[in-house]
Automatic annotation (TrEMBL):
<dbReference type="InterPro" id="IPR036163">
    <property type="entry name" value="HMA_dom_sf"/>
</dbReference>
<dbReference type="InterPro" id="IPR017969">
    <property type="entry name" value="Heavy-metal-associated_CS"/>
</dbReference>
<dbReference type="InterPro" id="IPR006121">
    <property type="entry name" value="HMA_dom"/>
</dbReference>
<feature type="domain" description="HMA">
    <location>
        <begin position="1"/>
        <end position="62"/>
    </location>
</feature>
<dbReference type="GO" id="GO:0046872">
    <property type="term" value="F:metal ion binding"/>
</dbReference>
<dbReference type="Pfam" id="PF00403">
    <property type="entry name" value="HMA"/>
</dbReference>
<protein>
    <submittedName>
        <fullName>Copper chaperone</fullName>
    </submittedName>
</protein>
<keyword id="KW-0479">Metal-binding</keyword>
Length: 66
């Protein structure tokens, strides 16, 4: 699953985003691309839960698809 995180713009943000998503499931893999402000999430987690976790952590996110 891919997500656009509009306010992710530094390494600290990337760590925060990764922490928020992995808080849902420790086995989830998160790849961050700061230049495009996108993350790729691999694992058994619902996209709506990913968006909700990111919003709770202060990041605006939207799903882009698989």
């Amino acid at each position: 699953m891919r997500f656009h995180v509009s306010n992710m713009n530094c390494g600290g943000c990337a760590k925060g985003v990764t922490r928020a998503v992995q808080g849902l499931d420790g086995d989830v893999k998160v790849d961050v691309d700061l230049s495009s402000r996108e993350i790729t999430v691999r694992g058994a987690v619902d996209p709506s839960r990913v968006v909700a976790a990111l919003r709770q952590a202060g990041y605006e996110a939207r799903a882009l698809g698989a």
